[in-house]
Amino acid sequence: MKIANYIDEINAKGEKVLSVFLTAGYPDKESFVELAVDILKNGADMLELGVPFSDPLADGPVIQTSSTEALLNGVTLTDVLGYVKDIKSKIDKPIILMSYINPILNYGIEKFLDVCKVYGVDGLILPDLVIEEYNELLGDINPDIDIVLLCTPTTPDDRIKQIDEQSKGFVYCVSLNGTTGVRNQFDDSILKPIKNAKNLITKNKMLVGFGISNEESVKYFAPYCDGVIVGSAVVKLLADESCGKEKAIELVKKLKSAC
Predict the structure, then answer these.
(1) Are the beta carbons of 30 and 74 closer than 8 angstroms?
(2) Which residues are catalytic?
(3) What sign results for the dihedral spanned by CA atoms 217, 11, 191, 164?
(4) Which residue has the higher pLDDT, 144 or 224?
(5) What backbone torsions phi and psi does residue 137 show, to the nearest 5 degrees?
């Protein structure tokens, strides 16, 4: 499935895309596939599966904690790929892996990309891979899956254009400086770099992430992007052992209604 075409179809209906991030294998390794499918059936247009990693530099406390717990539960990169295959057998929506580069280097880049294609992965986000290293590591490879690159509020204009040219699927626009996490309010000054990025990104669609956690924040960013990415707000709810899944699904429904 081509992610860009899928986003086009949703935007053509007058909607923004809702991409939901889940830490693979969290909160429970055995029931994760059921959780992911339910999230997709209840409003998420796309799913980002975070590969558990011991040093997730771009993530705040909520996702760091979930990643640590997933690792303690024995979730491996092979497990994550298996999740993708199982989820895809039940519902056909785009699944994007979000991973730091080290686990993939250890696996072998070409081998990993080949296996991703076989298992049904649609895209890959590597938050710690800068564009110069992209060219060095992937320049001789023509991956069959979309490689999504990121820009931030401090990314220079010429670099945003390079990121847009190199990225496939969409460009991930980080809404603010810092790590992932729930934000209850935003300063209007953060809209300036987002509007600027939207004007510069002409090849790809642009999704905004980091800090988006409720209907109000979705509506706040929606006019300036093609979709939103929500992670920490959902993962935080899943920590509630008694009714976390139900709370997370209810939040996803509300977020989609705001799109």
Answers:
(1) no
(2) 48, 59
(3) positive
(4) 224
(5) -85, -35
